[in-house]
Amino acid sequence: MFLIDLIPAISSYTSVISLILVIVIPQIIWQNTLGMRIVRTKIIDVYGNQPKWWQVIVRNSLAYGVTGGLILSELRLLSSNMAMTTTHFSWIHILIIALTIPISLIIIDLLVELFSKNHRLYFEVISGTDISSTYQK
């Protein structure tokens, strides 16, 4: 019974470790991931240089942690079963509304980014990074 209780914790740690190994470490060392190499892009700082390690960590924490965490939390609350008391149910409604506001701001940021000249998302602005093409004609 004890091992079954550990499965959710192990799966969440596995996700974090995978994110670090597949995305964060390659971006710190080579400025890109496998997918970024395929589309010939790399991460740079605002001056066009290789970003510092903390900029990559801030960028990915905001991009995957905040954005992904908010969306997954909202989906989890929306899919919760109805076997709960009225008090818990009202708290879930409050949490859903509270999570919808930052998710809406993120979606607005994505839409604004589509039409802006710089094409930088909120986590790129905060971390001081950008994406640059490595394609050479």
From TrEMBL:
A Pfam family annotated for this chain is RDD
Could you list this entry's UniProt keywords, alphabetically sorted.
Membrane, Transmembrane, Transmembrane helix
Q: What is its main location?
A: membrane
Question: What Gene Ontology terms describe where this protein resides (cellular component)?
Answer: membrane
Per the record, membrane topology reads: Multi-pass membrane protein
What are the RDD domain coordinates in residue numbering? 14-115
Could you tell me where this protein is found in the cell?
A: Membrane
User: Transmembrane segments in this chain: where?
Assistant: 6-30, 62-79, 91-112
Q: What is this protein called?
A: RDD domain-containing protein
